[in-house]
Amino acid sequence: MTDLLRAEGLSAFYGASQILFDVDLALQEKRTLALLGRNGAGKSTTMKALAGVVPARHGRIFFGGRDITRAPPHTRAQLGLAYVPEDRQVFPEHTVEDNLLIAAKSGPDGRRDWTLPRIWDTFPLLTKLRSRQAGRLSGGEQQLLVIARALMGNPLVLLLDEPSEGLAPIVVATIGKVLRELGASGATILLAEQNMHFCLRIAEEAVVIDKGKVVHRQDTAGLAGNDDIRRRYLAM
Ligand SMILES: Nc1ncnc2c1ncn2[C@@H]1O[C@H](COP(=O)(O)OP(=O)(O)O)[C@@H](O)[C@H]1O
Ligand SMILES: [Mg+2]
After folding, report:
1. CB atoms within 10 A of CB 16
2. DSSP code of 112?
């Protein structure tokens, strides 16, 4: 299998403080990889480094075989790397439908698999809300909207930063169902999460980080039964 996205020896800093230490990650095409770790472990910083929002001080990032280590965020997006940050930024004054249409474009390979009709099919909840102002949606609805909006750009890879965070269990279940369906339809996803249980039926494999270092890798099914790692590095 081909690594679609790969980080090698990644380090990142905020000012003088080093946050990531020698992080290696490989995401294969059509797979979902969970990036697990406690609050403050470095998940968001890793996602930002991959998206180009935070510079990599050392190491290399390859996307589709191309070295994107120094590429700015918009170039990475054009190449098909869609980053969905944890803050769920929507265009609050615009309707749900307009938020989606603003992002509509063909993928880097010319594909246009994701169009409005397919979004309505995949996200029935958004269909009902299509005319509502995005600023009036609940947190869970906004999370669904930002995932859907990323898909409208027909990306090759989705970087999702803690989509389940702070949401009610019923909404978390809805988001989980959507991500499982996306994975089954061949999407390639890197899913940063604190919540291991949320990832279990979504990601095949997990990378665990702690204090900015990769400390463990395992298939998610095995990790669920790995009490030692869970106790040491995850909040459960
Ligand atoms: N903008 C920032 N400036 C300085 N330190 C930061 C900044 N953002 C995050 N950090 C620190 O970097 C570490 C990793 O944070 P983060 O990547 O957000 O972790 P996670 O997403 O796993 O909760 C934490 O110690 C956090 O306090
Ligand atoms: Mg985070």
Report:
1. 5
2. -
Q: Is residue 63 part of a domain?
A: no
Q: What is the pLDDT along the chain (236 residues), one digit of tens a residue?
A: 679 999 999 999 999 999 999 999 999 999 999 999 999 999 999 999 999 999 999 999 999 999 999 999 999 999 999 999 999 999 999 999 999 999 999 999 899 999 999 999 999 999 999 999 999 999 999 999 999 999 999 999 999 999 999 999 999 999 999 999 999 999 999 999 999 999 998 999 999 999 999 999 999 999 999 999 999 999 76
What are the tokens at 62?
């390859």
Whether residue 149 has its Cβ less than 6 Å from ligand 1: no
Assigned domain for 23 exists: no
Q: How close is the Cα of 40 to the center of ligand 1, in Å?
A: 6
Atom of ligand 1 nearest to the CA of 38: 22
Q: Give the domain extent around 100.
A: 31-44+80-233
- Among 11, 14, 165, which is best to mutate for testing ligand 1, by the most ligand atoms less than 8 A from CB? 14
Domain-located, residue 101: yes
Tokens 């309505």, located at residue: 120
* Centroid of ligand 1 to alpha carbon of 18 (angstroms): 10
Q: How many domains does the chain have?
A: 1
Q: Is the CB of 235 under 6 A from ligand 1?
A: no
The CATH number linked to 108 is 3.40.50.300
Q: What is the DSSP string of 173-227?
A: HHHHHHHHHHHHTT--EEEEES-HHHHTTT-SEEEEEETTEEEEEEEHHHHHT-H
